[in-house]
Amino acid sequence: MSTATTPQTAPPANPSAPAPTPAARLALDWRIRFGVLSLIWGFSFLLIKVGTEGYAPFQVTLGRLLSGTAVLAVAMAVRRERLPRGARTWGHLAVAAFFLNALPFSLFAHAELTIPSTLAGVCNAASPLWGMALSLVALSEDRPTRRRVAGLGLGFLGVLTVLGAWQGFSGLDFGGTAMALLASLSYPIGWIYVRRTLAGNGSSTLALTGGQLFLGTVQLALVTPLFTSAPAGFPLLPTLAVVALGALGTGLAVLMQYGLVEEVGPTTAQMVTYLIPVIATAAGVVVLGERLSWNTPVGALVVLAGAALTQTRTRSGRASGVRTGDGVRTGTGAGSGAGAGAGATDHP
Description:
Helix content is 64%, strand content 1%. It is an all-alpha fold. It has a two-stranded antiparallel ribbon. Helix 1 crosses helix 4 (117-124) and helix 5 (127-138) runs parallel beside helix 12.
């Protein structure tokens, strides 16, 4: 991914008044987009919940991918981007689409049939913990440090706190929670795969992402008729939720995250990860009226603290772990693209 260059500015009309620096204008711009991106991904869990009130989980995922793919198709047309070429590239993109889009999106949709959106949002925050654990095994350049191992242990202690382990997980829907945790595990598996297979591919980030979402849509189009029947109708609110989930969370948010990574770098862009469970929890409680036990926010804070420790830099200056979030998923940062340009997915 290329680094954004600082644009040249014209001389000010009034020589006595200092011109605003490009950095100042860009700082305001990226902070606004950072906040919008946090809201989009934070509210995605609420939108999933609303979507499943009118459609089967696979149908929610299919509609989401259709809407997201449509947004990226328009972006590619505007920028005159071409889809990547080569059977091997498309084969790798098919695997990436499964682990980064089709599987986790479907798991979260199924999970929210039986668990609140607040719990789903917290489970998603475990992705960087899974990512660090997997990267230590799959990526030889990622070496464990005391801080990262401590972060891993702290993070999973937070997960146990959220789940209420000390009270025997009473009142917890095991199936739904397991699916949400498996969805958070699916992301780093996909990121590591992309990093090992598509790095240096040569195609643009947008082209690879567009191809990946297209393949994810095809996968869901083949699976959905096998497990669901055609909807009897198209209820307004669930339909709008699914369209917004795809167009905003899986389409627009991906483009916004790419811009953030190029403008301020992956380290700053990946900080959106730590706001998502906070926003998801607030949205679930305020909008959906979901009940919130003390252990959910406390455990979420512990999870995020552990995730932050796993993302600390090594002596060589490279970010450790696997990124979380829908920006640049290189296996060492956060986002929804990937070091090769693929790996697109949004947090939920």
